[in-house]
Amino acid sequence: MGAVNRAVRQFLRCPSKGLAELGIDCASVEHVILSHFHYDHVGNYALFPNARFYVQDAEMAFFTGRHAALSALRHSVEVDDVCALVRLNYERRLVFVDGGHEVVPGIGVHHVGGHTAGMQIVTVAHAKGQAVVASDAAHYYRNFEQRLPFNTLHDLPGMYRAFDRIRELAGGEDLVVPGHDPLVLERLKRVADGIVEL
To answer: What is the assigned CATH class of domain 14-191?
Structure first.
């Protein structure tokens, strides 16, 4: 990643601070789900010394494979993050998933691809039905609702399949949480600064 790209990034909040506001100590976290390996969805591994990290086989294979260095694909990835994930694997702290997996009762991951080779979404059992944390399988509500793929992608038809899978898994469209939409703060109940709940 070039210095120009790094300079335009705005770091809003450390995950440890967000979790602390919810009364969670990072050292007590046992499971961390990595939706994909783009720089804004990975990192800070040292904050979670007792956690195992859940990744899709396809994501690790792609970003340690022959095409990862192509300029059209690597602009969203930090090499240091991928190297750290390789180290976590050697420490036996990565859990590789090939498709779907229940992480803990009521919380599961599902491979959808599209945005990246191993893009995974998260399902969460909720009183209103099954919720889907779509991450970048739907950057914004409009991507999912209007079937408009975001312009950073690995596989265009895969993006459309991801939209279908989100619909299939969600108990309703109001239970889908996109990855980057500021409207999340308006559509969902705000419980703290920048923190919402369904």
So the answer is: alpha beta
